[in-house]
Amino acid sequence: MKYNNFEFNTYFENYPDAKGFFGKYGGSYIPPELQAAMNEINEAYQTICKTPEFINELHRIRKEFQGRPTPISYLKRLSEKIGNARLYVKREDLNHTGAHKLNHCMGEVLLAKSMGKKKVIAETGAGQHGVAMATAAAYFGMECDIYMGSVDIQKQAPNVARMKILGANVVEVTHGLATLKEAVDAAFSAYTKEYKNAIYCIGSVVGPHPFPMMVRDFQSIIGIEAREQMIEMTGSLPDAIVACVGGGSNAMGLFSGFLNDPVTIYGVEPLGRGEKLGDHAASLSFGTEGIMHGFNSIMLKDEKGEPAPVYSVASGLDYPSSGPEHAFLHDIGRVKYDMVTDDETVDAFFELSKTEGIIPAIESAHAVAYGIKLAQKMQSGSILINLSGRGDKDMDYIIEKYGIR
Ligand SMILES: *Cc1c(COP(=O)(O)O)cnc(C)c1O
Fold it and tell me: What is the position in ligand 1's atom list of the atom closest to the CA of 92?
């Protein structure tokens, strides 16, 4: 299918290219020691992950351990309350551990095991990626080091407890601001020393090649399932699909199944408290081209050109950039990127809970908020929203800050 004169029939053969570029975005901007390790992962990915053994084993794991396929639910009461458009949600909240992140963690750790590695290394901010990694490591009997800033360790006690119960080693990072950025640096430097024995696993479609491609491919199960399920349930493709975009993995997972279809695609960024730099994390909407964390993309910068401070009510979305493939799809116009505020998100959090009996992750509530606005505008047709995770982790904070709505 052609879209804005761009051919999508052959998209996955050409994007990314052999060096990991989606147009000018992506690539690998890292020290030579690390490049050797990335080349090893890329080679292993290109060979091992294409074998029937790997594909069959991952399929079995998804079915027997993760509980896939996750269903699609029709939001009958919410749709009828709004008007005549039909809203559907892809239930990644029902994936084991309660979010989509396990989709790529199981793939990455299966790959690590197939490569003969003994240990996985990762960083975590809010702890969601750390918990998914610790789960995958426990399943495969691998050692697991999770780097986490001491400030985040204080804030995220339940996730720290989960990781420890799952047998992971939580490594406290105390220097600098002691949050996610320092944890990334510490994890990278540990990996540089240990890469013969260990593999580094990233938390989204970001970082140097091959991670944006590999994480997209492992997450693409969301879009593959959703496309079939929508056709089976409704007899046709959805008119529009919607997902929230932090780094962009749940969104790429869903979008990849529909790029070559006549479906309007929306990525939703967090507008937080407003448009001032520091009050949001809408990197694709307000950012400019730049390099961070080993890849070229669109990012929010401060006056010195460094990654800017960002804010969102959803800690899983407060990242000053997004994956290179999103930057590319943004520039060619295939995906429309828009924003919702914290307030709209919190309203949607309560609306979905009260009207449908589904408490969404506050990240996913961004997509729900946008889906509701879209349904009000469209007044016909169908909209599929990616419900990337469940909201148990957010309840205490939301009630404390906003009360019950
Ligand atoms: C981490 C997380 C996100 C954001 O990450 P993406 O890579 O943008 O998908 C969204 N939703 C949930 C539930 C998460 O845990």
Answer: 13
Distances (CA, A) of 49 to 42, 43, 45, 55, 289: 10, 10, 5, 7, 32
Does ligand 1 come within 6 angstroms of the Cβ of 91? no
Q: Determine whether the shortest distance from the Cβ of 207 to ligand 1 is under 6 A.
A: no
**CATH architecture observed for domain 68-98+220-402:** 3-Layer(aba) Sandwich (3.40)
From atom 10 of ligand 1, which residue's Cα is the shortest distance away?
Answer: 363
- In percent, the amount of the chain with pLDDT more than 70 equals 100
Ligand 1 midpoint to CA 249 (Å): 7
8 has pLDDT over 90: yes
What mean pLDDT is reported for the chain? 96
| Tens of pLDDT, residues 22-65 | 999 999 999 998 999 999 999 999 999 999 999 999 999 999 99
Backbone φ/ψ region at 318: left (φ over 0), alpha (ψ -120 to 50), beta: beta
Is it the case that residue 255 has pLDDT exceeding 90? yes
| Residue with token string 């995906």 | 335
CB-ligand 1 contact for 249 (6 Å cutoff): yes
Question: With a 6 A CB cut-off, is 135 part of the ligand 1 pocket?
Answer: no
Catalytic residue among 123, 182, 325, 363: 123
Please spell the DSSP secondary structure of 146-190, one letter per residue: EEEEHHHHHHTHHHHHHHHHTT-EEEEE-STT-SHHHHHHHHHHH
**Residue 214 three-state SS:** helix
Q: Please report the pLDDT score of residue 3 as a whole number.
A: 87
Domain 22-62+101-215 has CATH 3.40.50.1100: yes
> Closest by alpha carbon to 215, among 185, 256, 187, 179?
256
State the pTM of this model: 0.97
Report the residue among 105, 204, 255 best suited for mutation to probe ligand 1: largest number of ligand atoms under 8 A from its CB. 204
Every domain of the chain and the residues it spans: 22-62+101-215, 68-98+220-402
Q: Is 388 a catalytic residue?
A: yes
**Residue 351 known to be catalytic:** no
CA 120 to chain centre: 19
pLDDT of 223 above 90: yes
User: Is any ligand 1 atom within 6 A of the Cβ of residue 362?
Assistant: no
Q: Which residues contact 364 (CB under 8 A, 6 or more apart)?
A: 92, 93, 244, 385, 386, 387, 388, 389, 391
